[in-house]
Amino acid sequence: MDFGCAECFGAETEDAGVVMPRCLQKAAVLRTLTLGWPTEVVHLRQCESCGQDYVVVYLEEINWEGSHDAEYDTLVPITRAEAASLADSRILRADIEDLSPRRWLYHERQVDRQSETYQWFKGAVTLPETR
Ligand SMILES: [Zn+2]
Question: 0.85 exceeded by the pTM?
């Protein structure tokens, strides 16, 4: 099973650093939720071209030493039923990790804002520990 169209999720042979920003631009935010902390933001998004649903989890590392915190984005394509179920409940980390297994995207921006990585993952969805 695969997800999305060439304008959003694309193929796994594409550079994750190209696909993820493109997907975020193409898939508008339908709903914003939190995982519990204000720095843990969950966006339910949908591609404007093909209607594919996505859940995007934004986590920020709380860094008391300075103002620049590390940031992590996890983007997972989801079915319409999964989107409805997530929109309907108070989201927990397990709800995201239970979406496994599938192909998903990960973005990490380190504290110094110099190092950024984009990666494809396949299989279990895991969220980074930020506290
Ligand atoms: Zn699409």
Answer: yes
Map tokens 């969220």 to a residue.
127
Q: Alpha carbon of 75 to those of 23, 42, 67: distances in Å?
A: 9, 10, 25
What is the rounded distance in angstroms from the CA atom of residue 60 to the CA atom of residue 38? 9
Residue 1 inside a domain? The answer is: no
53 CA distance to ligand 1 middle (Å)? 9
Report the number of distinct structural domains present in the chain: 1
Cα(41) to centroid(ligand 1), Å: 22
Residue pLDDT, tens place only, 47-64: 999 999 999 999 988 767
Is residue 130 a part of any domain in this protein?
Answer: no
Centroid of ligand 1 to alpha carbon of 9 (angstroms) = 6
Ligand 1 centre from 11 Cα, in Å?
12
